[in-house]
Every structure is written in C-alpha cells, then in structure tokens.
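Q: What does the assembly look like in three dimensions?
Context provided by user:
Components: two
Sequences:
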Amino acid sequence: MEKIEDKNQQQEEEQVVNPWEVSAKEGGKIDYDKLIDKFGCQRLDQSFVDRVQRLTSRPPHVFLRRGVFFAHRDFNDILDAYERGEKFYLYTGRGPSSEALHLGHLIPFMFTKYLQDAFKVPLVIQLTDDEKCMWKNLSVEESQRLARENAKDIIACGFDISKTFIFSDFDYVGGAFYKNMVKVAKCVTYNKVVGIFGFTGEDHIGKVSFPPVQAVPSFPSSFPHLFSGKDNLRCLIPCAIDQDPYFRMTRDVAPRIGYHKPALIESLFFPALQGETGKMSASDPNSAIYVTDSAKDIKLKVNKHAFTGGQESIEKHRQYGANLEVDIPIKYLNFFLEDDAELEHIKKEYGAGRMLTGEVKKRLTEVLTELVERHRRARAAVTDVMVDAFMAVRPLPNMFD
Amino acid sequence: MEKIEDKNQQQEEEQVVNPWEVSAKEGGKIDYDKLIDKFGCQRLDQSFVDRVQRLTSRPPHVFLRRGVFFAHRDFNDILDAYERGEKFYLYTGRGPSSEALHLGHLIPFMFTKYLQDAFKVPLVIQLTDDEKCMWKNLSVEESQRLARENAKDIIACGFDISKTFIFSDFDYVGGAFYKNMVKVAKCVTYNKVVGIFGFTGEDHIGKVSFPPVQAVPSFPSSFPHLFSGKDNLRCLIPCAIDQDPYFRMTRDVAPRIGYHKPALIESLFFPALQGETGKMSASDPNSAIYVTDSAKDIKLKVNKHAFTGGQESIEKHRQYGANLEVDIPIKYLNFFLEDDAELEHIKKEYGAGRMLTGEVKKRLTEVLTELVERHRRARAAVTDVMVDAFMAVRPLPNMFD
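A: Here is the predicted structure of the complete assembly.
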C-alpha cells in the first residue's frame, strides 16, 4: 500500500511534458522554470531580444518581446554566426492530425514567418503524416490528405515561396534523407528512446522508428536539392517546448555523425480557454478557437468558456480588481494584441477593477475575430497549384537573398 | 547456483538460428527437423518436386531434388494459383557485408534463377545496404559500394534483365515502399520483435526499425513501377532458413494490412569446410570457398581444410569405408555435382572404402574450380552499365512473358 501511495503522490506532483502529452500537476499550471531545468535548455532573456532587434534592424516580434518564445538552445551561436555574415536555415513542422488548426497551432508558424522575413533565410517545413498515421491510427491516405489541408493553413501564414520548402514525410522520405535517418538510428539505443520518450514494450516499432524522421531535417544534407555542398549550414528550429525531447536526442547525435547541433527557440504552450493547465486540445472543440470558427463561434466561446480572473460580482470586482495571473482573456491578448500601450492600459484598468470582464472579453473577441478572418481570407486564396509549388522538390536559387 | 547451471545446460542444448547467428549445439550439427518444428514451417516433400516438374515441364533443379531447399510456407498456394493460370513474383535478397561472395551466398541466387526461368516470372532482389551499415557499422558509402559489387555477382548468376529489378535500400526506400514500411511497423510491437529477433535495450533503434524494410518487398504495391494495379499478385521468397523470422513477422502482418502472405521456399545452410556445425562465415576465409578463389586456392582449401569422414589410415579406410554423414566433400558434391549417377557412384564407392578421400577431394576440386571459373568469367562480363540497367527504377513490360 505504501508504495502505491508514494507513486500517486509523485504523479500528482509531476507535470508531464512530451510531444504527445502536456499536463500540469493537479489544478496548477505548467512550471516553465522547472521545465527549463529538467530539459536543460536556457532562458531567452532580454539581451537576446535586444540583439535580434539590432541584427535585423526591425522591431522584435510580439512573441519575442513578450516572452512567448522564452527558451532556447544555442540561439547565441546562430546569432554569432549571423553577425559574422554566415546564414542559417529554419526548420519547423506540424503533425497533421486534424483538419482545422487552432490558434495554438499557428503560433510557431507566425513566429517562423517573422524569423524568415527578419533574417532572410530559407525554411523547411516538415509535415509528419507518417507520425500521425502511426500515433492516431489514421490511414496513409487520410494522413496525406490532412497534410495537404494543413499545408494550406501554413502557406496562408505568408511564407515566401522562393525561400520555403514544405514536405510530407510520406512523399519525401528516401535518398539522402533516409541515409541520415539510418545514421541517426545507429547512434540511439532503445533504452535511450525509452528514457527520452517513455515508450513501452507494447508500443509498436513504428513509434520507436520515428524519432530519426523528425531529427534529420536538422541536417542540411537531408535536402540535397536545397543545400548541396552546404553541410556546415546551421539550423534553427522554432517550436513549442514539448518538441524539445526530439531535438535533445538530435543534438546528442549530431556531432557523432559530423553535423552541427541544431539550435532551438522554444515557446510556451498556448493555454486552453478553460485555463492554463496545458495546451489547447484538438479533441475538445470548446477548449480552443479554430481558424475555421465564425465570428459568432468566437464570441460564444470567449463569453461562455474563457476562464477569467474577474470577481463574482460587479461590486467585488470594482473593489478587488481582476486576478490577471489566471485570466485567459488577458493571456490571449498578450499573444495577439500587438499594441503594447493598449495592452498595458487594459491590464492596468482590469487589474484595478475599473474595467469589467465583459469589456475585456469584447476586446478579445474583436482581436481574435480579426485574426481569424484575416487567416481565412489568406487561406481561401491558397490554391492546390500553390500547395504543389511549395511542396515541389526543387532548388531555391534565391533563398539567401 | 542451480539456476545458472540450468541456463548453461539449456544453452548447450539449444541450437541458435536467426538472421545474424547460426550455431548448432556443441559439437553437433543443425537439427533441421527441430528447426521446422520451432519455426512452424512445412517440410518440402517429394510430391512438391514432382509437381514442380509437371507444372514447369522441365527437370527440377538439383537443389530441389536433393532437398537443399527442404522447407516451405504456403508453396502449395503458389503452385495452386500457378496451375489456375495466375502468375506470381519472386523476391530474394542479400545483405552486402563483404566484397567477395562465397559459395553459400550463391545458392539462393542459383536457385532463384532456375525458378525465374522455369516459371517465367518477375523477380525483385533487395540489397540491404542499410542493414549492413547498421549491423556491421559500415559507412553509408561503403555499404553502397559493396551493394554494387555484390550486384555484379548476382547478375553473373544469369538473371533475365527483362524480368529482374535489383535495388539497394539506400537508393530505393521512399514513396510506396516507405508507406508499406509504416503500415507494417504499426502492426508490430517492440515486445514482438524482441521475441522474434532477440533485440535488447542496448541495441540501437536502427535494428528495431529494420524488420519492416525486409518485410515490404513481399507486397507488390511496394513496387508501383512494376506491379501497379496488381495488389493481389502473390510473392514467393527463396531464401536460407535463417531468414525465416523476418517472414514469419511479415506473414503475421500481411492480412491485417490487406495483402497476401508471402510464400517461402527455404534452404539448408551450406556447411563450412571444417564441418557441418553452421553456415560458412565470411569472417574466416578458410571456412569457405570464395568466388574470387583461384584454382590453386580451391585445391589448397579442399585438401587442407575440408573435414572428411575418411578413416585415419588407408587400411582402415579400405576396411570400414568413409562416414558419409559428416563428410564435407560429399556434402559439397551433393550441392554442386549435377550428374546424379556419378554422385551415387562416388557415394557408394567412397562409403565402401573402395574410393579414397584424396580421390573424392580431387573430384570436388574439379567441380568447384569449374563452377568458380564459370562464375568469374560471367562476372567479368558484367559492366557498370549493366548494373545501372538492372537497378534502374523502370517498368518491366515483358516480365510475365
């Protein structure tokens, strides 16, 4: 009995963050400081924000200056190299498990788009349709269909086609990419992946085989049509921090097979409407705002489901003000309301009780509706021909211009 | 202590046969009946030999009529289908771990060449350079070089280029082939591959990932340029019985992903010169006759290293005769001396002590020298252009003619 209690206690105390599960300890929220310690990455402090601003001669993205991207690995090496006049390339991706993306899914792409524009560098985007086929038990065909649908949402984020290669694993695995997969797999024991990813003996071997697939886009030689003769090109990976385990493994292997370790810049999770205990979930439609939601949907979801820090009566609210620490509308505005002055004003007034929850929710609804409408218009303009063009295996002769 | 003794005793008693190790129990030889029981395959009896002769209207290959290919799985289904007028395709392969092949390596190819000619069917030959890169710790480049060198030896066996596609995994994995790998991997747990192949936690994940690579050439959809629209085409795999574990796994998975189970026809191991306790080893040059050995090498190896059942003195030999059961020259002649009458004569005379070991060795040297010389001449005529032609990803419009 004692042993079982110990185990339950430990489970309650521990947050779980891996590529398939993000959950805070009971009733709490994700402790990002602990995560940084546990994963062994670095905090991205203000000096980085200032340096990026100086190097790119443009204002840092709101996600950078407000700490949405809050952790990194060797981002300083990327900036050092860039300052010496060396270029790098960006690598990000998505597991296409659902037709409609939610706002949390857009965050790495919005940020990657900024990085591409600011640093003027090429970008590879991996759609892990093989992963979703294996983890979600989708058919090959359905995984590929979702990959193409998701590609349209990604393209709608505004990537530069002359600098961007999007690929699906089912289409692209082979050749130099497969050779690198084998090189990586040779360097990682089964015990090691169990330690990193928590696989069990009853998991199928597709799961055990997958980590090298997500690892090798970190190596320029996986893309001979893009980076032939550029084996020393550095790679920077913007992603949510739950993907860190893949790249810890990749960074461990890289020098043993003659490549640079990829650098990482990692984001917080975008919280669920119901509160910040994890990231948004595609399986609970009321936990998230989708890019397919109508203005009416958004209004309803924000009004009905957003967890707030407002007080239970107007009188108490006027007296004590809102608890901004737990307030989801404030957190969402922190991601998407670009005007720093307006955000500060709202936080001050709402925190002091002079602004009511309904007013904040109304402003959030406007901001999200505008964002979603803008995305929808952009996505509607993405044709199948454009998807084919982004996904064509081709050289990108102007990718460093 | 008792437990340890038990384990030692068990190890002594058990023969080990898997794709990477073949060893009889201490001092004994491989017990093929036990192997058939353990693996769950069927013995290939005389009725099959007769049936093949009748269906193909040609004498059965010496390897068939002398029981070198001695076991099968569902070979009857292949013959039933063939009798109904349905075609099938052949799949065999090689792990290119060494530059020079020995005679044991040639056996499946010699037999497959006979099957291709007799049944007039297409053939795919897999060179698992990825496997050897992972198991033997060769570089990608060296594995690929060995694959091409081995392809020359394989082509020298006389395959029909209009019916034969040779591929290396490093070149060919991708597309439909990769999709089938993922489908297979989804159906096999880690515990399952541990049970089949004996992997441990300290083995690298490349090993765990490999079985689907060897599985999927069993499915026609892995070769869209050959078998598009022929998903129901049956597959027959001629191989040595140590490869059975791969195809037990494949057969288990096949119906779950909508394919026929591949049929198998499986051979004995070709014994080492030193005696029949295992198969020839590429790592001990004196255990095997290589296709690169000179007539002088062959004579020396046969005379010096071949284990015989002759008696220790001529007097005793004349009196007791040779023990044919353990005699390697007789075993080798059983594989390669095609004249049944001459073989019977030698066995009778040698067994009765009227023929001496030296005489049998001399005849074996002649037979092997002729075989090796013929192979060497054929291989010398194989150009790089021919290798490219056999390995070109192409349709084979006349493959069923």
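Follow-up: Residues 215 and 250 of chain A are 5 Å apart (CA to CA).
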